[in-house]
Amino acid sequence: MNKFVKRLRTLWRRRQLDRDLQDEMAFHLAMNEEQSGDSTAARRRLGNATALQESCRDLWAFTRLETWWQDLRYAWRTLRKNRLVTATALVTLALGIGANTTVFTVVSSALRFDMGVDHVERLVVLHPGEGLANVDPASPPSIDFANLRSQLKTVANLAAYRFSAVNVSDSRALPERCWRVQMTASGWTLVRPQPVVGRRFGPDDERPDATPAVLLSHRVWERRYGNDPSVVGKVIRIDDVDHVVVGVMPAGAQFHEDAHLWTPLTVKDLVNPEFRG
To answer: What's the pTM?
Structure first.
Protein backbone atom coordinates (compact mmCIF):
# COMPACT_ATOMS: atom_id res chain seq x y z
CA MET A 1 0.00 0.00 0.00
CA ASN A 2 2.84 2.39 0.87
CA LYS A 3 4.51 1.63 -2.45
CA PHE A 4 1.31 2.42 -4.32
CA VAL A 5 0.93 5.74 -2.45
CA LYS A 6 4.50 6.67 -3.27
CA ARG A 7 3.89 6.04 -6.95
CA LEU A 8 0.83 8.26 -6.86
CA ARG A 9 2.88 11.05 -5.30
CA THR A 10 5.36 10.87 -8.15
CA LEU A 11 2.64 12.01 -10.55
CA TRP A 12 2.57 15.40 -8.78
CA ARG A 13 6.35 15.64 -8.31
CA ARG A 14 7.34 14.45 -11.78
CA ARG A 15 9.49 17.47 -12.73
CA GLN A 16 11.31 17.50 -9.41
CA LEU A 17 12.02 13.76 -9.66
CA ASP A 18 13.30 14.17 -13.23
CA ARG A 19 15.69 16.86 -12.08
CA ASP A 20 16.84 14.68 -9.20
CA LEU A 21 17.38 11.76 -11.59
CA GLN A 22 19.41 13.90 -13.99
CA ASP A 23 21.53 15.17 -11.11
CA GLU A 24 22.08 11.58 -9.92
CA MET A 25 23.12 10.45 -13.41
CA ALA A 26 25.50 13.44 -13.75
CA PHE A 27 27.02 12.63 -10.37
CA HIS A 28 27.73 8.98 -11.33
CA LEU A 29 29.17 10.09 -14.69
CA ALA A 30 31.48 12.56 -12.98
CA MET A 31 32.64 9.89 -10.52
CA ASN A 32 33.46 7.50 -13.38
CA GLU A 33 35.36 10.21 -15.25
CA GLU A 34 37.39 10.98 -12.12
CA GLN A 35 38.26 7.31 -11.62
CA SER A 36 39.08 6.49 -15.24
CA GLY A 37 40.38 9.88 -16.37
CA ASP A 38 38.64 9.37 -19.73
CA SER A 39 35.17 10.85 -20.34
CA THR A 40 34.46 8.51 -23.28
CA ALA A 41 35.34 5.43 -21.24
CA ALA A 42 33.28 6.77 -18.36
CA ARG A 43 30.19 7.21 -20.56
CA ARG A 44 30.70 3.74 -22.06
CA ARG A 45 30.95 2.25 -18.58
CA LEU A 46 27.82 4.05 -17.38
CA GLY A 47 25.80 2.85 -20.41
CA ASN A 48 22.89 4.40 -22.24
CA ALA A 49 21.78 7.29 -20.03
CA THR A 50 18.38 7.62 -21.67
CA ALA A 51 17.61 3.91 -21.23
CA LEU A 52 18.71 4.08 -17.59
CA GLN A 53 16.43 7.06 -16.96
CA GLU A 54 13.44 5.28 -18.51
CA SER A 55 14.13 2.16 -16.41
CA CYS A 56 14.23 4.27 -13.27
CA ARG A 57 10.97 6.00 -14.19
CA ASP A 58 9.29 2.61 -14.68
CA LEU A 59 10.25 1.69 -11.13
CA TRP A 60 8.77 4.71 -9.38
CA ALA A 61 5.95 5.87 -11.69
CA PHE A 62 2.88 4.68 -13.62
CA THR A 63 4.24 4.79 -17.15
CA ARG A 64 0.98 3.92 -18.91
CA LEU A 65 -0.98 6.43 -16.87
CA GLU A 66 1.56 9.13 -17.60
CA THR A 67 1.47 8.31 -21.31
CA TRP A 68 -2.31 8.52 -21.28
CA TRP A 69 -2.17 11.84 -19.46
CA GLN A 70 0.34 13.23 -21.96
CA ASP A 71 -1.82 12.14 -24.89
CA LEU A 72 -4.85 13.74 -23.28
CA ARG A 73 -3.04 17.03 -22.75
CA TYR A 74 -1.75 17.00 -26.32
CA ALA A 75 -5.25 16.33 -27.68
CA TRP A 76 -6.68 19.14 -25.55
CA ARG A 77 -4.07 21.63 -26.80
CA THR A 78 -4.76 20.58 -30.40
CA LEU A 79 -8.50 21.03 -29.97
CA ARG A 80 -8.05 24.46 -28.41
CA LYS A 81 -6.03 25.65 -31.38
CA ASN A 82 -8.70 24.50 -33.89
CA ARG A 83 -11.94 25.55 -32.23
CA LEU A 84 -14.03 25.54 -35.41
CA VAL A 85 -13.00 21.97 -36.25
CA THR A 86 -13.60 20.94 -32.64
CA ALA A 87 -17.09 22.45 -32.60
CA THR A 88 -17.96 20.77 -35.89
CA ALA A 89 -16.74 17.40 -34.60
CA LEU A 90 -18.69 17.75 -31.35
CA VAL A 91 -21.92 18.68 -33.16
CA THR A 92 -21.47 15.76 -35.58
CA LEU A 93 -20.87 13.33 -32.73
CA ALA A 94 -23.88 14.63 -30.80
CA LEU A 95 -26.16 14.30 -33.82
CA GLY A 96 -24.84 10.82 -34.61
CA ILE A 97 -25.24 9.57 -31.04
CA GLY A 98 -28.72 11.08 -30.79
CA ALA A 99 -29.83 9.54 -34.10
CA ASN A 100 -28.47 6.11 -33.16
CA THR A 101 -30.15 6.27 -29.75
CA THR A 102 -33.48 7.25 -31.32
CA VAL A 103 -33.34 4.49 -33.94
CA PHE A 104 -32.34 1.89 -31.34
CA THR A 105 -35.19 2.95 -29.03
CA VAL A 106 -37.78 2.78 -31.81
CA VAL A 107 -36.58 -0.56 -33.18
CA SER A 108 -36.20 -2.06 -29.72
CA SER A 109 -39.71 -1.06 -28.68
CA ALA A 110 -41.16 -2.29 -31.98
CA LEU A 111 -39.46 -5.69 -32.08
CA ARG A 112 -39.17 -6.57 -28.40
CA PHE A 113 -42.16 -7.85 -26.47
CA ASP A 114 -42.64 -9.52 -23.11
CA MET A 115 -44.30 -12.92 -23.43
CA GLY A 116 -45.15 -12.77 -19.75
CA VAL A 117 -43.39 -16.07 -19.00
CA ASP A 118 -40.78 -16.45 -16.27
CA HIS A 119 -37.53 -18.14 -17.36
CA VAL A 120 -38.40 -17.83 -21.05
CA GLU A 121 -35.02 -19.42 -21.88
CA ARG A 122 -36.43 -22.72 -20.56
CA LEU A 123 -39.46 -22.57 -22.84
CA VAL A 124 -39.46 -25.19 -25.63
CA VAL A 125 -41.82 -25.41 -28.62
CA LEU A 126 -42.53 -28.89 -29.97
CA HIS A 127 -44.09 -29.69 -33.35
CA PRO A 128 -45.81 -33.10 -33.15
CA GLY A 129 -44.80 -35.52 -35.86
CA GLU A 130 -41.55 -33.68 -36.67
CA GLY A 131 -38.62 -35.62 -35.27
CA LEU A 132 -40.45 -37.13 -32.29
CA ALA A 133 -39.68 -40.84 -32.11
CA ASN A 134 -42.77 -42.02 -30.22
CA VAL A 135 -45.36 -39.93 -32.08
CA ASP A 136 -47.33 -41.28 -35.03
CA PRO A 137 -47.74 -38.50 -37.66
CA ALA A 138 -51.09 -39.99 -38.68
CA SER A 139 -52.54 -40.03 -35.17
CA PRO A 140 -54.95 -37.29 -34.02
CA PRO A 141 -53.31 -34.32 -32.23
CA SER A 142 -55.31 -35.06 -29.08
CA ILE A 143 -53.71 -38.51 -28.84
CA ASP A 144 -50.25 -37.05 -29.53
CA PHE A 145 -50.69 -34.47 -26.78
CA ALA A 146 -51.83 -37.09 -24.28
CA ASN A 147 -48.88 -39.33 -25.19
CA LEU A 148 -46.39 -36.49 -24.91
CA ARG A 149 -47.76 -35.39 -21.55
CA SER A 150 -47.34 -38.94 -20.17
CA GLN A 151 -43.98 -39.73 -21.79
CA LEU A 152 -41.89 -36.55 -21.55
CA LYS A 153 -40.17 -36.70 -18.18
CA THR A 154 -37.74 -33.78 -18.67
CA VAL A 155 -40.53 -31.23 -19.22
CA ALA A 156 -42.05 -29.68 -16.11
CA ASN A 157 -45.28 -28.68 -17.80
CA LEU A 158 -46.75 -29.36 -21.22
CA ALA A 159 -49.38 -27.17 -22.86
CA ALA A 160 -50.95 -27.00 -26.31
CA TYR A 161 -51.97 -23.83 -28.11
CA ARG A 162 -53.26 -22.65 -31.47
CA PHE A 163 -53.00 -19.17 -32.97
CA SER A 164 -55.61 -18.16 -35.57
CA ALA A 165 -57.71 -15.31 -36.90
CA VAL A 166 -61.39 -15.20 -35.91
CA ASN A 167 -64.45 -13.00 -36.35
CA VAL A 168 -65.75 -11.27 -33.21
CA SER A 169 -69.25 -9.80 -33.04
CA ASP A 170 -71.75 -8.64 -30.42
CA SER A 171 -74.33 -5.94 -29.82
CA ARG A 172 -71.75 -3.40 -28.59
CA ALA A 173 -69.94 -2.66 -31.87
CA LEU A 174 -69.45 -3.72 -35.47
CA PRO A 175 -67.88 -7.14 -36.17
CA GLU A 176 -64.11 -7.19 -36.47
CA ARG A 177 -61.26 -9.55 -37.25
CA CYS A 178 -59.12 -10.50 -34.25
CA TRP A 179 -56.24 -12.82 -33.46
CA ARG A 180 -57.16 -15.56 -30.99
CA VAL A 181 -55.01 -17.93 -28.98
CA GLN A 182 -56.54 -21.24 -27.90
CA MET A 183 -54.51 -22.75 -25.06
CA THR A 184 -54.92 -25.56 -22.56
CA ALA A 185 -55.35 -24.65 -18.92
CA SER A 186 -51.89 -26.06 -18.18
CA GLY A 187 -50.39 -23.25 -20.26
CA TRP A 188 -51.86 -20.62 -17.97
CA THR A 189 -49.75 -21.90 -15.09
CA LEU A 190 -46.74 -20.55 -17.02
CA VAL A 191 -48.15 -17.10 -17.79
CA ARG A 192 -47.13 -14.46 -15.26
CA PRO A 193 -49.74 -11.67 -15.70
CA GLN A 194 -53.03 -12.02 -13.85
CA PRO A 195 -56.34 -10.67 -15.19
CA VAL A 196 -57.20 -7.15 -14.09
CA VAL A 197 -60.88 -8.11 -14.16
CA GLY A 198 -62.35 -11.58 -13.70
CA ARG A 199 -60.33 -14.80 -13.72
CA ARG A 200 -58.12 -17.00 -15.85
CA PHE A 201 -58.93 -20.40 -17.30
CA GLY A 202 -58.88 -23.57 -15.23
CA PRO A 203 -59.19 -27.30 -15.92
CA ASP A 204 -63.00 -27.09 -15.74
CA ASP A 205 -63.00 -24.83 -18.81
CA GLU A 206 -61.49 -27.67 -20.88
CA ARG A 207 -64.35 -30.10 -20.29
CA PRO A 208 -66.34 -30.99 -23.44
CA ASP A 209 -69.57 -29.89 -21.74
CA ALA A 210 -68.11 -26.60 -20.39
CA THR A 211 -69.57 -23.28 -21.47
CA PRO A 212 -67.24 -21.67 -24.05
CA ALA A 213 -65.26 -18.90 -22.34
CA VAL A 214 -63.03 -16.08 -23.53
CA LEU A 215 -60.41 -13.78 -22.05
CA LEU A 216 -60.09 -10.33 -23.60
CA SER A 217 -56.87 -8.40 -24.12
CA HIS A 218 -56.66 -4.99 -22.49
CA ARG A 219 -56.65 -3.14 -25.82
CA VAL A 220 -59.80 -4.91 -27.03
CA TRP A 221 -61.46 -4.21 -23.67
CA GLU A 222 -60.47 -0.55 -23.93
CA ARG A 223 -61.24 -0.03 -27.63
CA ARG A 224 -64.41 -2.08 -27.98
CA TYR A 225 -65.92 -1.96 -24.50
CA GLY A 226 -64.61 1.30 -23.07
CA ASN A 227 -62.94 -0.32 -20.01
CA ASP A 228 -66.36 -1.41 -18.76
CA PRO A 229 -65.83 -4.03 -15.98
CA SER A 230 -69.40 -5.25 -16.43
CA VAL A 231 -68.34 -6.91 -19.68
CA VAL A 232 -67.35 -9.93 -17.56
CA GLY A 233 -70.22 -12.36 -17.78
CA LYS A 234 -71.45 -10.96 -21.09
CA VAL A 235 -71.70 -13.11 -24.22
CA ILE A 236 -69.81 -12.39 -27.44
CA ARG A 237 -69.75 -14.42 -30.64
CA ILE A 238 -66.48 -15.83 -31.95
CA ASP A 239 -66.84 -17.46 -35.37
CA ASP A 240 -70.59 -17.85 -34.77
CA VAL A 241 -70.06 -19.54 -31.37
CA ASP A 242 -71.24 -17.82 -28.20
CA HIS A 243 -68.54 -17.31 -25.57
CA VAL A 244 -68.87 -15.91 -22.06
CA VAL A 245 -66.28 -13.28 -21.09
CA VAL A 246 -64.56 -14.48 -17.90
CA GLY A 247 -61.80 -11.90 -17.57
CA VAL A 248 -59.57 -9.18 -19.03
CA MET A 249 -55.80 -9.43 -19.22
CA PRO A 250 -53.61 -6.44 -18.23
CA ALA A 251 -52.10 -4.02 -20.71
CA GLY A 252 -49.01 -5.42 -22.40
CA ALA A 253 -49.93 -9.10 -21.98
CA GLN A 254 -48.83 -10.68 -25.27
CA PHE A 255 -48.91 -14.45 -24.90
CA HIS A 256 -48.94 -15.23 -27.80
CA GLU A 257 -47.67 -12.10 -29.60
CA ASP A 258 -50.41 -9.78 -30.93
CA ALA A 259 -53.20 -11.81 -29.33
CA HIS A 260 -56.51 -10.01 -29.00
CA LEU A 261 -58.31 -12.70 -27.01
CA TRP A 262 -57.83 -16.17 -25.55
CA THR A 263 -60.11 -19.21 -25.35
CA PRO A 264 -59.58 -22.66 -23.79
CA LEU A 265 -58.21 -25.42 -26.00
CA THR A 266 -60.26 -28.55 -25.34
CA VAL A 267 -59.87 -32.16 -26.49
CA LYS A 268 -62.65 -31.50 -29.00
CA ASP A 269 -60.59 -28.64 -30.50
CA LEU A 270 -57.50 -30.84 -30.78
CA VAL A 271 -59.14 -33.42 -33.01
CA ASN A 272 -59.26 -31.31 -36.17
CA PRO A 273 -56.75 -28.41 -36.27
CA GLU A 274 -53.01 -28.69 -35.91
CA PHE A 275 -51.57 -27.32 -32.76
CA ARG A 276 -48.24 -26.45 -31.21
CA GLY A 277 -47.31 -27.68 -27.80
So the answer is: 0.55
